[in-house]
Design brief:
13 helices; two-stranded antiparallel ribbon; mainly alpha; globular
């Protein structure tokens, strides 16, 4: 069992209070309900980025998370619109199907050296996009539209989750749903890192040959981690499709896969919550630079390069510096 310090418990309490109480109250009081959609997008991007971070944890660069987000979005949309399945059941199934496809892909390519794995994942998003364009079940370039909002979930007559279509502000409901999913994702990530599996992953990250020599099945762990990573991507994509009530082959592109990776770098590859912070900073940082017009990309790229040079371990490494080098 993982024991948390008093400082960590206080930090968690502040986080939960802010996410589930203070932020929603502030948004409602200001009438800016559009911010629910913005923060929901940040949360879903953080979930997908958590999967990319996990593959970094075994020393592999994953530039294909957009492919599994797209896959998850289509699987959920097809199950809901064509099979009449409840969204809440399609959500985990979308993640599991993404994980299954990741295993099929990972079996051959995860035996290759890291650079080849990165090159192959780089083209995955485009491959999945072209597949969505070609298959009849995905409706080609027209995509799948008019996806119904999540329905109600009841047990013994007790409504656990209301029908989103009957709510005055479904965006707020999506916000709370995403917040819960994000908490569960990072709790799982934290548990993995601090488990026996996490210790084996760290040994692989440092020296795969040495880890293999002491009996670690590195191929099995690589595939398992890649499957978990893709599961997170599938979940995030399924939620995106439900919020937008549509999914197209262009819903997730190569640029999205690159941004998932940048979120991890920016927050800090050595920290479980690095992808969450990186997503928050990158998302709102890009919007803040919008006023610069044609110079937006130049300033954005320059700032990222400067951050990588002076903070190679991400923004969370500032905490380590202030504490005299201790995490």
């Amino acid at each position: 069992m993982i024991k948390l310090s008093m400082f960590q418990w206080v930090g968690l309490a502040i986080f939960f209070l802010g996410v589930f109480v203070i932020v929603p109250m502030m948004i409602v009081s200001t009438g800016r309900t559009d911010l629910f959609f913005t923060l929901t997008s940040v949360g879903l991007l953080a979930i997908a980025s958590a999967g990319v971070w996990l593959t970094f944890y075994i020393g592999r660069i994953n530039i294909g998370q957009g492919a599994f987000a797209l896959l998850g979005a289509y699987v959920s949309a097809i199950l809901v619109t064509k099979a009449g399945m409840s969204f809440w059941l399609s959500l985990p199934l979308a993640g599991l199907f993404a994980a299954f496809v990741a295993v099929l892909i990972g079996l051959p390519i995860l035996r290759l050296r890291g650079v080849y794995f990165a090159m192959i994942t780089l083209v995955l998003t485009q491959v999945f996009t072209l597949t969505a364009l070609a298959l009849p079940i995905t409706n080609g370039a027209k995509g799948i539209t008019s996806i119904p909002l999540p329905g109600a979930v009841s047990i013994f007559g007790l409504t656990l989750i209301p029908d989103f279509a009957t709510l005055e502000n479904p965006r707020q409901a999506f916000y709370f749903t995403t917040a819960i999913l994000m908490v569960l994702t990072y709790a799982a990530l934290y548990r993995i890192v601090n488990s026996r599996l996490g210790h084996l992953c760290r040994s692989m990250q440092q020296n795969e040959e040495l880890a293999s020599s002491i009996g670690v099945n590195i191929s099995y762990i690589r595939i398992l981690i890649f499957a978990i990573s893709s599961f997170f991507g599938g979940i995030g994509g399924a939620m995106f499709g439900s919020i937008a009530q549509s999914v197209y082959p262009s819903s997730f592109q190569v640029a999205d896969s690159v941004n998932f990776m940048l979120n991890c770098f920016l927050g800090g590859l050595g920290y479980v919550f690095g992808p969450m912070l990186g997503t928050l900073v990158l998302y709102f940082g890009w919007d803040l630079l919008f006023e610069l017009g044609k110079y937006q990309m130049l300033v954005y790229s320059s700032l990222l390069i400067i951050l990588m040079l002076f903070l190679p371990n991400g923004l969370l490494s500032l905490r380590m510096r202030k504490s005299g080098g201790q995490k």
